[in-house]
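Handout, page 2. Input:
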Amino acid sequence: MRILITNDDGINAPGLEVAHQIATEIAGPDGEVWTVAPAFEQSGVGHCISYTHPMMIAKLDRRRYAAEGSPADCVLAALYDVLQGAKPDLVLSGVNRGNNAAENTLYSGTIGGAMEAALQGIPAIALSQFLGPETDGLADPFEAARVHGPGVVRALVEKGLWDRDADYRLFYNVNFPPYPAAQVKGVKVTAQGFRRDTAFSVEPHQSPSGRKFLWIKGGPQHSPTLPGTDAAANLEGYVSVTPMRADLTAHDRLADLEALLA
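Output:
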């Protein structure tokens, strides 16, 4: 089995090493694990691609490359340059440092990497480690993902729905809960949630030169979402698995809108 891994935290991020460990176990002794990851952190870039400027790519080691671009760029670089058209059987994006549940999903470069793989017709899974007070004191904050990741990925590879003939193929968003591995209660299939009392915003700061700069800031991450959704399951100690598509159409509103505009 040939597996490609990427992320949005950058080529030197500790979560990428966790993803490599998971991929190595899934690929098996006769498999291949390839890494093409951003040279620098790309958190929050979503499904961005570097459409208007070129990117440099560098080989760092055997099957390990860094590209000056987004996670989606890295997937494209891997498919059409590094792997020379020999498509991988699976793409793993992550393991992200921090959750990509609820509205975070829409901003996430980790999700963007998996989404691009799905658009290219390749099974893809985004992996993220929810962090919190229970993980702060751990020697390995990624412990839950490291221990439970192989089992979750293997289950999706062997039993998951992939809709291989669909125009917009399924991909999966997996979030590991903010607890030590021994406290993980299991796996729940969830919908994408929404944190109703928080949102991204900006915070102004003045530089020493007197100029005003704005920092993007997130809201509280431990606000629960509705039951049956990703962040709620994570905060209860479960790994959340959310099937996703790149199709943004609100299919449930098509008929109503057509009637209104008739």
